[in-house]
Amino acid sequence: MRIAVEGCGHGTLHAIYSSIKKSCQVNGWDGVDLLIIGGDFQAVRNSYDLNCMSVPQKYRSVGDFHEYYSGKRTAPYLTLFVGGNHEASSHLRELYYGGWVAPNIYYLGAANVLRFGDLRIAGLSGIWKGYNYNKPHFERLPYDANDVKSAYHVREIDVRKLLLLRDQIDVGLSHDWPRGVEWKGDHQALFRKKDLFEADAKAGTLGSSAARHVMDRLRPPHWFAAHLHCKFAAVVNYSHEETNGQSQKGAGSNGGWDGANEAPGVDAATEVIRAAPPAPVKNSDEIDLDLDMDDEADDPIPAPSANSIAEQTDASPAANPTKSQASTAPPTDLATQPPHTDPIPHPPTSSVPDSLRARLPASFTRPASPPPIVPLPHPPTITNTLTNFLALDKCLPHRNFLQILDIFPLHPSTPPHP
């Protein structure tokens, strides 16, 4: 099945569809069967939806989607997407379980799995913020400044739905990268391009623990992501873990994955993929203003780590090429960290006196650390042991934002009888 995969949409549907058409011409294809967008779709119906989108007011734009929503245009390819951290949350919350946002454009919901032909596709929306992970979706309209940001944080109640799956899926999709996946590809080249990622990767805080937990559980042959605005390919080989007994222990070097320093082979990760031509340039003098620069800027949480800075910045300077690569070796203490062991941020200073707090029951005391995740037996019906991971950029000129490839179902279904 011919699939087109795009990174962050950012409301540029015209340019995305145009680039797919050109890419198909280069490859001699007459089109694609499905387009997958990895988040930041921005399904903005009108200017009121912009009030529920986490973007600085001076950078807000209605974008292209309203033309497809109103029926002025129709998507030329069936389009499937998950939510990111720059979405019209008021619109997508109406489709919490997934649904059609416009003719031929389908939103997967907070977490969902569907079948397209013989392919089973699972998707997880949002980005990882540990302090909201175990909370319900408490946001209610009209959103305040905090609700606009917390609305797109991944919740455990949604992840649990995907963990209940017992059958093999073919494609996994998330906006945020699965945590630790950077060590399964050419991490040295990644850190040269995005030097702010290195410290977070070594600390085990780059990416989403929820996405990693789902990927480790479902083990799809393909996993696509976006968010960090760069192209990156990796291969996760779960057969190594089974050989060493790590899948039962839930531990191993580099966040539970063995052989993390091994860069994937070209045949396994990128040979079947061909880059698309750049999108049309609207203005050659236009300055690229990254929408992620405001990410979590107003959150009442302590000073951000380099990971949050990396999420907010796209145009980070390249690292010195003469710098020793020995410092990019992954840490060895990540093996002791379960997937959801982010430290809980300290709350802001409260005006409630300690004498009143002392009168509260013990159940009101903030726990020192989140409870560890209990490893679950691996479903015997999920047999795949090799996951090809691919992250893509956002739709801008001279960016690697689009790939087209053939995907075959791992277990084709039996054709129905006439």
Automatic annotation (TrEMBL):
Record key words, sorted: Hydrolase, Iron, Manganese, Metal-binding, mRNA processing, Nucleus, Zinc
Region (Disordered): 243-263, 292-355
Keyword Zinc listed: yes
Matching InterPro entries: Calcineurin-like_PHP (IPR004843), DBR1_C (IPR007708), Dbr1_N (IPR041816), Metallo-depent_PP-like (IPR029052)
GO biological process, one term: mRNA splicing, via spliceosome
Obligatory cofactor(s): Mn(2+); Fe(2+); Zn(2+)
Bias kind Polar residues: ranges: 305-330
Gene Ontology CC: nucleus
An example molecular function term from Gene Ontology annotations: metal ion binding
Compositional bias (Pro residues): 340-350
Calcineurin-like phosphoesterase domain location: 1-230
Subcellular location: Nucleus
Domain called Lariat debranching enzyme C-terminal: residue spans: 384-410
Family per record: Belongs to the lariat debranching enzyme family.
Protein name: Lariat debranching enzyme
Gene label: DBR1
